[in-house]
Amino acid sequence: MTHPQSDSPLSPSSVVGSSDSEASPASADSPSSPAVVGPLGPVGRVTAASYSGASASAVAFPDPARRPYPDPRPAGSAVSASSALHAVLEDSEEGTLMETLGMEVVTRDANRTEVRMPVDGARQVVGILHGGATAAIIETAASVAARAAAPDGAVPVGAELTVSHLRSVSRGWVKATAVPLHRGRRTVVYQVTVTDDDERTIAVGTLRSLFT
Fold first, then answer.
1. What is the pLDDT of residues 37-82, one digit of tens each?
2. Model-level pTM?
3. Is the preceding omega at residue 72 within 30 degrees of 0, hence cis?
4. Domains and CATH numbers, the chain
5. pLDDT by residue (tens digit) across 97-116?
6. What is the DSSP string of 35-82?
7. CA distance linking residue 17 with residue 98, whole number of Å
8. Which distant-in-sequence residues (6+ apart) come within 8 Å of 22 by Cβ?
């Protein structure tokens, strides 16, 4: 028994992924759609509508022509979610661990500083937030507050960091809130509380900084 055959040979446009195929409104050629980074690097672009339903491993980045991604760029994680959200960092903070881990300064004040960070891209091998990343956001929040408290011309340098891990977290965001325990002419001590999206405390710590 024979089956109907096409009168024309297979054209390049019928091959999946062919460059001759007609682009849809949300195609990779759309300049307004952000790029998606997968485990092996950039894999395409998505629209704002489709990104809202994307998996947690997909990360949207702005056009590299407008904001170059740090080099070397990490492959396939959400470590630079702040770049996608255009979070405001001071010039001195760009290209640092703050940007690498996707930290965002929510409140910048000597009496209260808040910094948030995505868990995605900062996990350890068992899938929970890495303790080193928790320590990093604690020191970062306290350091941002210490810079706001520093006398004119002085630069705070961390001298002693303590961290107590209380609860694990595997998704969402964490927020570090730093408040002063001591503010002197040469030293400051900040206490930092780290919470998850449900406002549960996952870690606490302190940072003593010296003004140099």
1. 444 444 444 444 444 444 444 444 444 444 443 444 444 444 444 3
2. 0.60
3. yes
4. 103-212 (3.10.129.10)
5. 999 999 999 999 999 999 99
6. EEEETTEEEEE--HHHHTTS-TT-EEE--TTTSPPPSSPPSSS-TTHH
7. 38
8. 13
Buried-exposed string 127-145: b where 16+ CB fall within 10 A, e elsewhere = ebbbeebbbbbbbbbbbbb
Distance CA 150, CA 207 (A): 14
The active-site residue out of 93, 99, 139, 160 is: 139
Is 160 an active-site residue?
Answer: no
Q: Is 115 left (phi over 0), alpha (psi -120 to 50) or beta?
A: beta
Q: Which of 81, 33, 26 is nearest to 57 (CA)?
A: 81
CB 148, CB 90: distance < 8 Å: no
Which amino acid is present at 15?
V
- What integer is the mean pLDDT of 135-149? 98
The structure tokens listed for 153 are: 């011309």
